[in-house]
Structures are given as C-alpha cells and as structure tokens.
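From the methods appendix. Each design record in this collection lists the tokenized structure first, followed by the designed amino acid sequence. Records were kept in a plain field format so they could be parsed without special tools. The example shown here is representative of the layout used throughout.

RECORD:
FOLD TOKENS (158 positions):
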C-alpha cells in the first residue's frame, strides 16, 4: 500500500492536495478506481470540489485503466467541476437501478458498463458506529457486506 500524504478530507477520508498529486506523478498503476458526485455521458465524472477534481485527474494520469464506481444516484448527475472526461473512463460499475438511457449514452461514448448482480439473501447488514464522528453528526453508518458477487455483466443468470 502506498500512502500519498497531503491533507485528509474528513468527509471522505481521502488524501488530497498538491503533495498527494506530486506523489502520484511518480507512479504508474494498471487500474484506478474512482467515484465522484456525478457521472454523465456529456461531462464524464464530476464533483463540487476543485481540489478533489485535481486529485482524480492525477490518479487518472497515473493509471492505464480508469474504473468509475457510481450507483444510480450519481449517474446522470453533473456537479460543478469535471474530474475525468468520459473519454478517460474505461469502465463504469453501477447498480441495477441506474437509468438505462444513461447507461446507453455512456456505452455510446465508449464506456464499458458493468452492472453486477448478486443474491440479496446472501448479503448481511450491520450497523457500524465510528467513534471519530463529530458531535451532532448524523446517524451511524450502515454497512452492507456482499459476500457473493457472481458476475460483472449486465445480465442476470438463467
């Protein structure tokens, strides 16, 4: 594991800033897994934070393949700052609730779209309480463990 250093963004626990970007400029990775606040066929991935966008661009430049992880609440949304243009995205991994029109537009733009399917009866939910949450923070985090991911395709099994 390589830790880039720089500033810790508390809301996402991500290291961002010039030192982190400089650190990424010296490495090459086969794959970068990114997520953001929005993803569209017109603008690619986007975020409301310019510093986060800059870090995403640095990670994209360091990787041969860019895989965006975005659920249905992010696809079709454009936030203020573009992080990765759609031409720079190799693969989108999303959920089955994502609008098919949006997925078709991303495919037409050259993005390989994967909608993993899983068997809900194999998933378990637990509630995790983090002790480092600020006073007055929202509810505890619900974490879903999915022990069985069968396929990275668009279609469910027979």
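DESIGN:
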């Amino acid at each position: 594991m390589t830790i880039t250093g720089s500033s810790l963004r508390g809301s996402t626990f991500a290291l961002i800033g010039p030192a982190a970007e400089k650190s990424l400029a010296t490495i090459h990775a086969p794959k970068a897994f990114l997520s953001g606040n929005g993803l569209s066929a017109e603008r690619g991935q986007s975020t409301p934070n310019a510093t986060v966008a800059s870090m995403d661009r640095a990670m994209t430049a360091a990787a041969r393949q860019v895989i965006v992880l975005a659920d249905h609440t992010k696809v079709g949304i454009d936030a203020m700052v573009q992080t990765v243009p759609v031409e720079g995205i190799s693969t989108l991994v999303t959920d089955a609730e994502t609008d098919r029109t949006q997925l078709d537009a991303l495919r037409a733009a050259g993005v390989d779209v994967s909608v993993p399917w899983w068997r809900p009866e194999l998933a378990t939910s637990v509630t995790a309480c983090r002790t480092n949450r600020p006073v007055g923070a929202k509810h505890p985090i619900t974490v879903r463990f999915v022990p069985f991911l069968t396929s990275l395709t668009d279609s469910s099994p027979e």
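APPENDIX NOTE: The chain has two domains: 7-115, 118-152.
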